[in-house]
Design a protein that fits this description.
By secondary structure, this protein is of the alpha/beta class. It is built from 22 helices and 24 strands. The chain has three domains: 207 residues, no CATH class; 198 residues, Rossmann fold; 189 residues, Collagenase (Catalytic Domain) (3-Layer(aba) Sandwich).
């Protein structure tokens, strides 16, 4: 890797030749007016004097007045910069050739010039590569095509982001700040240019120090340009009061409100048990219900689970709610901010895709940016689609850190670290959440008398470990959250025998495991899922991971299969599809019997090296039910003589499998 100092010196030596065309050297452009630019940035980013509140309450415990902070590095990408004022501004929506970059730290203020597009005489920029990788990541996370860049490609992308932000005097000031502050540095990024603001700067990687800015080195946050003061928040004692509003169908819309709320609360269980948060759930959130809950002002945080997007036709970001009939209902950014703003909220956490997206003409028309621009102190949003398990892990650690009296910026950093070392997410998930904050040093909670340990991100039940006495531990994963009483079903199966111990786990379906051929039904591809989950049994400390899904499934040879296991027990992954059986209720005696039947069939195939067949008795657990007969699915099963003979070598396993078939008469 090229030494950072040599790279910096080389850039300084080539600055004049790279930024300005050679033909203009005789008429040297006027120097940048640093004071004017600094004043412009300050006036754009701060509220007008007439809009300042009459009095500022004293800072709460553990907080520091923003004006006294010496560890804040602010970087603002300004509007178009013209080295030659005689050259007219870019017209017709064309990308200007240069932008001004303003940076401040510890009273020092500097500027540099950022090249946005190639010059007429061959001067190059990194933006072509940055945009290409950014679009590739968006397509992959949206399930459209392709794959993520490999490790080498992601490092190159991250270094391109860093080198683009930190140039010339800005780089010198950054190096000075890092030398003085080390890792205790709040980095605040703001862009007046919408398409630049859209890029994932959280991935920036400092090659000279071999570190990601947003995890190892700095507390990375974003801000917006606005003239509206932020709501004043005083840190409170006690747990964070969180309203969790869900506006997405859980369990294919088959669950009751009570069952759906139980699924929603499950991601907050470690925090609730530790006394760090209190959670009120709002399933199937309509705008009216959410408005009603917020109008009393008794919540610190709103955690919204749903969908978001940027509506190009409307020119604004939208959140997708449901209406009274349970149908999709889109709400534009104006209505969203009217519901959320001025409610004494400290934070809104948007666990929804594309909630950070903004318009090319007005980036503050995005949902997250609009909320912050109109007074909310802080918003967390996603810049790509993110796995549920990663979003849950980020939220758990973020809220835990806030409840310990840490700042918004420090809490975001701790959460990114936790997601980054997680084994059950995508390698980019740690940088997908974006923190927008007026003041990233803001503290929402008074530090407790006794600080608690970092919560372990659970992919299995906290009840550990009732299955240790069994010879074979089987983790059971309800992929679509459609069986809310599955935990109770597994406990009955455990009580009936002593060979197989079943325990419920929670995780997310990885990306890249679908057959997405255009014009055809979306199918779960078994081999792809099994390969992506190859390391999960080790992380879960189990022998087998058994998955249940309502999605139709295929493997490398067959389409619309409903049971899969590897031929050689590697990886130890079993997958069962109940697609096409819409009569199957989320819970009840029939559902319990189906769970036992299918689990026995998969385990018999896995340990006995058997395949499904159409000959013989239909009562055999591995009978290939090609016609999808519901009566066969729910019927009591048993092994015939031929099958028992093939399975006799399993010994105690066979006895346990036969016992499981009789648990639910």
């Amino acid at each position: 890797m090229i030494n950072a100092r040599r790279m910096l010196q080389k850039k300084w030596n080539l600055r004049a030749a790279s930024l300005y065309p050679k033909k203009s050297r005789a008429a040297k452009p006027p120097p940048l007016d640093i004071e004017t630019i600094a004043q412009q940035a300050s006036e754009s980013a701060q509220p007008k004097a007439s809009e300042q509140p009459d009095a500022t309450p004293p800072p709460g415990p553990g907080s520091t007045p923003h004006s006294a902070l010496g560890n804040v590095f602010e970087l603002v990408i300004m509007d178009e910069f013209r080295p030659n004022p005689d050259v007219p501004r870019a017209a017709g929506g064309a990308t200007p050739q240069f932008a001004q970059v303003f940076a401040s730290y510890g009273g020092a203020r500097v500027t540099s010039v950022m090249r946005l597009r190639a010059g007429d005489e061959g001067q190059k920029t990194q933006f072509g590569k940055i945009i290409g990788t950014h679009e590739r990541i968006k397509k992959y996370t949206n399930g459209q095509e392709g794959s993520l860049p490999d490790d080498k490609g992601m490092i190159a992308f991250s270094e391109q982001l860093f080198d683009t932000l930190f140039q010339d005097d800005v780089r010198r000031l950054y190096d000075e700040a890092r030398t003085l502050q080390g890792r205790k540095l709040d980095f605040i990024f703001t862009s007046m240019i919408p398409w630049i603001a859209e890029k994932p700067w959280e991935f920036a990687y400092d090659p000279g120090r071999n570190c990601d800015l947003a995890t190892e080195e700095m507390r990375f946050s974003r801000n917006v340009l606005t003239s509206i003061p932020a709501d004043q928040i005083n840190p409170g004692a006690g747990p964070l009061r969180i309203l969790v509003a869900s506006a997405q169908p859980v369990g294919y819309g088959r669950l009751s409100i009570e069952q759906e709320e139980a699924v929603i609360r499950s991601g907050f269980e470690p925090l609730i048990a530790a006394g760090l948060v209190t959670v009120t759930t709002l399933a199937r959130a309509t705008p009216t219900k959410l408005h009603g809950h917020l109008s009393n002002g008794k919540f610190d945080v709103v955690h919204f689970i749903g969908h978001g997007t940027y509506d190009v036709a409307r020119g604004e970001g939208v959140l997708v709610f449901v209406n009274e009939q349970g149908q999709e209902y889109k709400l534009g950014e104006r209505s969203v901010r009217e519901i959320f703003c001025s409610r004494n909220l400290s934070l809104v956490f948007l666990n929804a895709c594309e909630t950070r997206a903004g318009g090319r003409a007005d980036f503050n028309k995005g949902v997250a940016q609009s909320l912050v621009a109109h007074g909310l102190p802080a918003v967390v949003a996603n810049q790509y689609s993110v796995l549920d398990s990663s979003a849950t892990s980020f939220a758990q650690h973020f809220y835990w850190s806030l409840a310990q009296g840490n700042s918004l910026g420090e809490s975001a950093r701790e959460a990114r670290i936790a997601v980054n070392y997680s084994l059950h997410g995508e390698p980019i998930d740690w940088a997908i959440p974006v923190l927008y904050a007026r003041d990233s040093s803001l503290v929402l909670c008074e530090p407790p008398a006794t600080r608690s340990f970092v919560p372990e991100t659970r992919v299995r039940s906290d009840e550990r470990r009732a299955t240790e006495k069994y010879n074979v531990c089987v983790a059971v994963w309800d992929m679509d959250n459609v069986f809310p009483e599955l935990d109770g079903t597994l406990r009955q199966m455990n009580a009936a025998q002593e060979e197989f111990g079943f325990e419920l786990v929670r995780q997310s379906v990885p990306l890249g495991v679908w057959d997405l051929r255009q014009g055809e039904e979306k199918l779960l591809w078994a081999e792809r899922l099994a390969n992506r989950l190859r390391g999960m049994p080790v992380e879960l400390e189990v022998d087998v991971l058994a998955s249940i899904t309502r999605h139709p499934m295929r493997d490398n040879e067959w389409v619309n299969i409903y049971g899969w296991w590897p031929d050689d027990r590697d990886p130890p992954i079993l997958i069962q599809s109940v697609a096409g059986f819409d009569q199957l209720a989320p819970a009840g005696p029939e559902t319990d019997r189906v769970t036992a039947n299918e689990m026995v069939g998969n385990l018999a195939g896995f340990y006995g090296s058997l395949n499904g067949h159409q000959a013989g008795s239909k009562k055999f657990p591995l009978f290939f039910n090609e016609e999808r007969e519901f009566e066969h699915l729910v019927a009591r099963k048993q092994f015939d003589k031929n099958c028992r003979k093939k399975l006799e070598g399993l010994g105690a396993k066979l006895d346990a499998l036969e016992t499981l078939l009789d648990v639910f008469p």
